[in-house]
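Is this the right way to post structure tokens for a design question? Let me know if I should format differently. Anyway, here goes:
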């Protein structure tokens, strides 16, 4: 079944707001539009529930119930248990706290594995463990930006405690074989930590089927408020030192969140589930993830073909839409930020720079200071949007 793009776009108030008329949103990798279901829940919470939650009075009890609902329903979307879901202020913060927890658990001589394909938020906190005497090993990409499982296996031994890698990169965007990687990590006796920030907006995955011990993503990129979600499975959170208040040590969802939750934003995350349910129901019960991915592949391939046919620009990552997210980074003689400014003159919202993937760009021979142009779509991107983008790119490249 094909995605009904008109129905989808009707769920996002931004598409009908006069302030955004004439603009085409191609900076989705930096943050998606919020769906109406999230906005409605956030508005209701700030209007009716902006009180200390979980109290005996009706409005405060309702606020706590909405926060619990968000945890339960996000867990359902991700195929995990509610106790395996933690909310935090951002994925960057969640990753930092996680690395600090591992730091307290690890012993001299222990090692972690990171990649040079990552956004710095998922690699930096782990790399800093070298300052405490732990070994940091780098799983390196090949010249095309691809990670090979055999290279990881050469790094794994009984010293490795955690392997941190992305579901897909925010630059090359190729979807890594997460189940195979997680299986190899588990066989080596280590913990797999998957950065899903660049993949989750294109269809929330079934984390249990992926086999990941830890999975992280940001809800402001999955059509919701600015929160980070961290899934910890297989007893990982119980095996790590408590990072929260000592009296919350027995609550799995609080062990790795030292900061108090943003009540309203946590509650509003249930709106993401509302939207996914509406999307599935409108399409006869089809799986939202599959609908979104199929639409993105169909919509993205013409752009990749168009870029591949040019000799004045380099596409980073594969030219096959089926194996990548709709995030497209282009290297050109003109600096990425300048190209983004020129696209804005044509009504295209895009980005230019290094996108916190400095190590990746260095490894691929791109000067991070020069940067790349990044255009990123989502399942709500229309064919008219794509046509306008290619016309504008033709004018500025």
């Amino acid at each position: 079944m094909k995605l009904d793009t008109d129905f989808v776009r009707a769920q996002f108030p931004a598409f009908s707001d006069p302030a955004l008329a004439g603009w085409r949103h191609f900076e989705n990798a930096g943050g998606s539009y919020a769906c109406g279901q999230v906005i409605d829940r956030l508005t209701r919470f700030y209007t009716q529930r902006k009180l200390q939650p979980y109290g005996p009075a009706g409005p405060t009890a309702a606020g706590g119930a909405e926060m619990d609902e968000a945890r339960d329903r996000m867990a359902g979307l991700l195929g995990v248990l509610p106790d395996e879901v933690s909310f935090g202020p951002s994925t960057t913060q969640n990753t930092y706290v996680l690395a600090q927890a591992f730091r307290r658990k690890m012993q001299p001589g222990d090692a972690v594995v990171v990649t040079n394909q990552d956004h710095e938020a998922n690699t930096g906190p782990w790399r800093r463990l070298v300052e405490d005497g732990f070994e940091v090993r780098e799983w390196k990409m090949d010249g095309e930006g691809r990670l090979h499982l055999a290279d990881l296996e050469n790094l794994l031994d009984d010293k490795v405690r955690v392997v941190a890698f992305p579901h897909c990169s925010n630059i090359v965007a190729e979807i890594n074989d997460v189940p195979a990687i997680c299986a190899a990590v588990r066989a080596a006796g280590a913990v797999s930590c998957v950065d899903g920030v660049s993949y989750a907006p294109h269809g929330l995955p079934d984390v249990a089927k992926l086999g990941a011990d830890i999975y992280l993503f940001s809800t402001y990129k999955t059509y919701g408020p600015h929160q980070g979600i961290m899934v910890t499975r297989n007893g990982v959170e119980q095996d790590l030192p408590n990072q929260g208040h000592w009296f919350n040590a027995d609550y799995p969802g609080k062990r790795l969140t030292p900061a108090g939750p943003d009540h309203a934003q946590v509650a509003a995350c249930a709106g993401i589930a509302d939207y996914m349910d509406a999307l599935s129901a409108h399409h006869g019960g089809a799986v939202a993830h599959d609908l979104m991915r199929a639409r993105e592949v169909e919509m993205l391939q013409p752009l990749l073909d168009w870029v591949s046919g040019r000799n004045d620009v380099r596409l980073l990552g594969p030219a096959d839409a089926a194996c990548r997210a709709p995030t497209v980074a282009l290297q050109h003689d003109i600096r990425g930020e300048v190209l983004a400014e020129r696209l804005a003159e044509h009504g295209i919202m895009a980005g230019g720079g290094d996108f916190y993937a400095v190590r990746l760009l260095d490894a691929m021979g791109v000067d991070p200071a020069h940067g790349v142009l990044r255009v990123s779509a989502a399942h709500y991107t229309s064919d008219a949007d794509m046509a306008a983008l290619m016309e504008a790119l033709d004018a500025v490249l």
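Format looks fine. Someone answered above. Worth noting: Residues 42-274 form a domain with the Aspartate Aminotransferase; domain 2 fold (CATH 3.40.640.10). The first strand starts at residue 24 and ends at 25.
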